[in-house]
Amino acid sequence: MIVTSGKVRGGNLDVDVSGLPEGTTVVVLAPEGDETFDLDPDQEAKLLAAIGEADRGELVGAAEVIKRLPRR
């Protein structure tokens, strides 16, 4: 997974897509207003560790995640 960000300018989404292959489908998540969230120290440490893993490329592909989901 590649994570990138951008800004809306003049009614268009301005995003650096240099790391995305042609034809890539993207999902845009946008906050509504001044949304924030609070983390306790343990949650913050886990989030920062996960961000570090992603930055190092230590990711699991979507197909693998789907295989790991419990079946009903």
Rg over CA atoms: 16 Å
Protein structure class: alpha+beta
| Overall helicity | 25-40%
3D shape: extended
Order of helices and strands: EEHH
Number of helices: 2
- Global mean pLDDT: 82
Total number of strands: 2
Number of self-contained structural domains: 1
Major beta sheet, strand line-up: 1-2
The fraction of residues in strands falls at 5-15%
N→C terminal distance: 27 Å
The low-pLDDT segments are none
Notes on the structure:
By secondary structure, the chain is of the alpha+beta class. Helices cover 31% and strands 11% of the residues. It has a two-stranded antiparallel sheet with strand order 1-2. The model has no long low-confidence stretch (mean pLDDT 82).
Topology readout:
Layout: E1 6-9, E2 12-15, H1 41-55, H2 62-68
Antiparallel strand pairs: 1-2
Briefly say what this structure is:
With 72 residues, the chain is of the alpha+beta class. Helix content is 31%, strand content 11%.
Name a few traits of the molecule.
two-stranded antiparallel sheet, 11% strand, alpha+beta, single chain, 72 residues, 2 helices
